[in-house]
Write a structure and sequence with these properties.
This protein is α+β, with helices and mostly antiparallel strands. The chain has one domain. It has 3 helices and 4 strands; from the N terminus they run E-E-E-E-H-H-H. The chain has helices at residues 43-49, 62-68, 80-88; strands at residues 2-5, 8-12, 21-27, 33-37. The chain has a 4-stranded antiparallel β-sheet with strand order 1-2-3-4, covered by helices on one side. The chain starts with a strand and ends with a helix.
Length: 90
């Protein structure tokens, strides 16, 4: 895994046997963790491969926060770097 920018990383995808870094992970200021596989694996397959759910990539109350226009929490339930470490597991 390697950091490619502020709150951005690139890693190998845990959902298939591939030697190239093709998984992009980005943490947004509102706490969402975005996962994009350049070669086409879906976010569900990537999360399933490491025992996460897609909902683990979002702050628990994001919808309520947006509806009531309150402040956004400082950190998601699982930080992007931690999610990325989970994606890197064999």
């Amino acid at each position: 895994m390697r950091q490619t920018g502020a709150d951005r990383w690139l890693a190998r995808c845990p959902a298939h046997d591939h030697r190239h870094s093709s998984l992009s992970v980005r943490e947004l200021p509102d706490g969402r963790v975005l996962v994009h596989h350049i070669a086409g694996c879906g976010v569900y397959a990537v999360c399933d491969a490491v025992g996460l759910t897609v909902s683990d990539l979002f702050p628990p109350n994001l919808r309520e926060i947006l509806l009531h226009r309150t402040t956004v929490p400082a950190a998601p339930p699982i930080p992007a770097a931690e999610a990325l470490r989970a994606f890197e597991m064999p």
